[in-house]
Write a structure and sequence with these properties.
Order of helices and strands: HEHHHEHEHEHEHEHEEHHHEEHEEEH
Number of domains: 2
Oligomer: single chain
Structural class: alpha/beta
Radius of gyration: 21 Å
Number of helices: 14
CATH class of the largest domain: Alpha Beta
Number of strands: 13
Shape: globular
């Protein structure tokens, strides 16, 4: 196992990497510094100049660069991308648009992040659709076979978190797209715990929709997200949330039925924190230019070293070990130790991780090095 692995990017773009041992990307990733600067400059300009610079044309085209960069992220076309305030918002609008009926079902897991399931639950309360959840094993992972067994010809949607937030289990999206489509269902993906750290070829994998928030592995701000929508859906669904931006021409303001764009932007419905869009576009562009494949490989080396080191000091690693299901999220229990005390000791020692239920979650990213992992293991080993 390597004893020195340099960060994949200059650490001065992520100052927190110089002030502590930050292994907590699955919680909040420090924002890419030029992204933060772009956001600050936009707000400064609006504060000082109002709409003198951010005029009607600027508002109409405010998401264009974000569409381009998110398309690169998902290997799609800019017309396949919609921006929103959060993954939950985008998936909720999509759930009401799809609106599975009373004779159908939606399949997911009982360890998915709520944003993957709650939108479908809310629609199901209205339509009578059945929600089917595959149950996790003792370690918090789900046997893929349990999900497959729940899918049948009445399944309308298979809703998965690409990487599960608590265990780090990674789903084979191409395989589940094939299974879903064989039964006439859609594959809808929450990629907030994977986009920016795991390669996602949405059209190539057969994904029907995938949404991701900015503030985790994508190194962007809170308050903005993007969604890829396959063209066959973008031109056929009526969004669940609509507003003045739902028009082809957003300045054709009337109460007539909206003339929806013939692309994914029909899911962009209203005024939001527009200044975040430029910063998010910069962070996505930075990651794609760095190479998502390279980021994935870098993070896996760190995760490998972490798993090996945790096993050596007697921890119970609860995240997947096999390469097909692994991600950069590593979770562990510490027999003989109170888990909250372990988490507190790590934080007090300047090692930033997350306590999630009965496990500690480690999540290294492109600004980390092997010495960060070694530091975390050293701190844990020092606990009496």
């Amino acid at each position: 196992m390597p004893q020195s692995l340099d960060p994949l990017v200059p650490v001065d773009e992520f100052p927190v990497a110089q002030t502590c041992t930050y292994i907590n990307a699955a919680n909040v990733t420090p924002m890419y510094r030029p992204a933060a600067s772009a956001i600050t400059e936009w707000y400064r300009d609006v504060a000082e100049n109002g709409s003198n610079h951010f005029d009607e044309e600027a508002e109409a085209t405010v998401f264009d660069e974000l569409h381009r960069q998110a398309a690169r992220l998902f290997n799609a076309s800019p017309t396949d991308i919609a921006a929103g305030s959060s993954t939950t918002e985008l998936l909720s609008s999509l759930a009401w648009a799809v609106m599975p009926g009373p004779e159908t079902n939606v399949v997911s897991t009982d360890v998915s992040f709520p944003a993957s399931v709650y939108p479908w639950r809310r629609v199901a309360n209205h339509t009578g659709c059945e929600i089917r959840l595959a149950h996790a094993r003792g370690g918090g992972t789900v046997d893929p076979g349990r999900v497959r067994d729940l899918i049948d010809d009445n399944t309308a949607v298979v809703a998965l978190s690409h990487v599960e937030f608590r265990s780090g289990q990674r789903w084979d999206l191409a395989a589940f797209a094939e299974i879903a489509h064989r039964h006439g269902a859609l594959l809808v993906v929450d990629a907030t715990q994977s986009a920016g750290a795991v390669p996602i070829d949405a059209p190539g994998m057969g994904i029907d929709a995938v949404a991701a928030g900015a503030y985790k592995w994508l190194c962007g701000p809170f308050g903005i997200a993007v969604m890829y929508l396959a063209p066959h859906l973008a031109t056929s669904l009526e969004p669940g949330l609509v507003g003045f931006r739902s028009q082809v021409d957003i300045w054709d303001i009337s109460t007539d039925p909206p003339d929806y764009p013939e692309d994914a932007s029909r899911f962009e419905f209203s005024t939001m924190a527009y200044g975040l869009a430029g910063g998010f576009a910069k962070s996505i562009g930075f990651l794609v230019d760095t190479g998502i494949d390279e980021i994935f490989a870098h993070n896996q080396v760190l995760a490998d070293h972490l798993i090996s080191g945790l096993a050596d000091i007697g921890a119970e690693v609860t995240s997947p070990r096999n390469a097909a299901e692994r991600s950069a999220i590593v979770t562990a229990r510490f027999p003989g130790h109170d888990i909250s005390s372990v988490a507190k000791h790590l934080k007090q020692s300047g090692v930033m991780v997350a306590l999630r239920g009965d496990v500690i979650r480690f999540s290294p990213h492109l600004y980390n090095r092997v010495s960060d992992v070694e530091r975390a293991l050293e701190v844990i080993s020092s606990i009496p």
